[in-house]
Design brief:
There is one protein chain. The chain is an all-alpha fold. The chain has a single domain (about 25-95), classed as Cytochrome c-like domain (Cytochrome Bc1 Complex, Chain D, domain 2, Orthogonal Bundle), CATH 1.10.760. The protein is built from 6 helices and no strands. α2 packs across α6 (about 85-95) and α4 (about 60-65) runs antiparallel to α6 (about 85-95). It is globular and about 35 Å long. The relative contact order is 0.17. Bound molecules: heme C. The site of heme C has 16 residues, from α3, α4 and α5.
Length: about 100
């Protein structure tokens, strides 16, 4: 229940923050929901490293490194392979907007 409330507040905040961008941001959030199991609701932890609120481009760069096998112990490398470039950019953009 608490999780759902936090998620709802997050959605309400991002909608209020930039309502004109809500449609653009939505695919990023939907994709990012794949990450919450390990990185916490909205990517803010607890769990593995928090991935929310980084500078724009940081998550994208990391995901590219994971895809190339240059980073991590294998979990993220395999996970990152499941995303296309535009999807990783959407993930990056949405996660960076979460403070
Ligand atoms: C099954 C668990 C799991 C899921 C799901 C998962 N991650 Fe991870 N993530 C990890 C682990 C474990 C690490 C630590 C690095 C490693 O071992 O590869 C990590 C590390 C990272 C890092 C590096 C953080 C840093 O500060 O160096 C980023 C960025 C990241 N994950 C992004 C994502 C994104 C984006 C998603 C969703 C698309 C996601 N992760 C989904 C387990 C997960």
């Amino acid at each position: 229940m608490k999780r759902i409330r936090i998620l709802f507040i997050g959605l309400a905040l991002s909608a209020g923050f930039a309502s004109s961008q809500a449609q653009v941001d939505q695919p990023g959030r939907l994709l990012a929901s794949n990450c919450f199991q390990c990185h916490g609701t909205n990517g803010k932890g607890p769990g593995f490293d928090a991935i929310a609120g980084k500078s724009v481009g940081e998550i994208y760069k990391k995901l590219k490194e994971f895809q190339a096998g240059k980073e991590g112990n294998g979990i993220m490398a395999k996970h990152a392979l499941g995303f296309t470039d535009p999807q990783m950019q959407a993930l990056d953009k949405w996660l960076a907007s979460q403070h």
